[in-house]
Amino acid sequence: MVKYIEETAEFLQQKGFTNPEVGIILGTGLGQLIDELEIIKEVSYNHIPNFPTATVEFHKGKLIYGKLEGKNVIVMQGRFHLYEGYTLQDVTYPVRIMHKLGIKTLLISNASGAVNLDFKKGELMLIDDHINLQGGSPLGFKGVEKLGTRFTDMSAPYDQEINTKIETIASDHNINLHKGVYASVFGPQLETRAEYRYLKIIGADAVGMSTVPEVIVANHLDLKVAAVSVLTDECDPNDLKPINIDEIIAMAAKAEPNMILLFKELIKSLS
Which pathway is it part of (predicted)? Predict the structure, then answer.
């Protein structure tokens, strides 16, 4: 993997992806941040050596380099999921590349379902902790110690200083921002009533199919990381309605401007 990482990073550096400070991963239905970006370079995933290729139709599949609030940023417009047939190493490969290129901070967004019924669709949740229910680890491969410590500490996977800044920004702009625990499942099927009850019992406030592998690898690489969930549906096992993907995407788009504001103001505040 070391050879692949060097090859990919060298290709992107030659394309002009130089001295990035912040990496951003955009979740399902969350692409409006690109409109705020001063784009300098962009490359489709399928043109990048050793990169996976996005397969979900509402994921654009581009790596974008530009300026946001005066900082050099790399944005993943489209992410990879286990349910698309990728491995955990595939899913997290872009994080390793962004780190190799020089980022110090990783910001992640996702769309998730509210297990905590005090949270409502269209609201945001700052992830304070997570539960990995994906059945594996992105660090579980031979030679991982060449890229970072094998036994990565996860006592505080989300940077507390950044989370405090995000909470302050939300308060200053009257954004209703919850804080909670995100459970990451394999997917792509949605949960049963019994599974939603289980998730609530074990302490999850929201559930989705991403983010946790990237956060584990970010911690493995000593990156500062923060993640915000856009809550797109309410998962009440006693009143569970059939899922409507179009409605979920529409709800993500409706809530996204507040998430963009949080990320922009945070990036502005980073030294």
Answer: Purine metabolism; purine nucleoside salvage
Residue 265 backbone dihedrals phi, psi, to 5 degrees: -65, -35
CA 54 and chain centroid, separation: 15
Which DSSP state fits 47? G
The tokens describing 258, both together, are 């507040």
pTM listed for this prediction: 0.95
CA distance between the termini of the chain:
32
- Cα 84 to chain center, whole Å? 16
Find the largest Cα–Cα distance for the chain. 55
Cα torsion 235, 237, 238, 241 to 10°: value is: 60
CB-based contact 137:255 (threshold 8 Å): no
The Cα–Cα gap between 124 and 33 comes to: 16
**76, 26 Cβ separation under 8 angstroms:** yes
224, amino acid identity: K
Which of the four pLDDT bands, split at 50, 70 and 90, describes residue 58? very low
- Helices 2-14 and 88-101 pack at an angle, to 10 degrees, of 50
- Residue 20 reports pLDDT greater than 90: yes
Domains in the chain, CATH or no CATH each: 2-269 (3.40.50.1580)
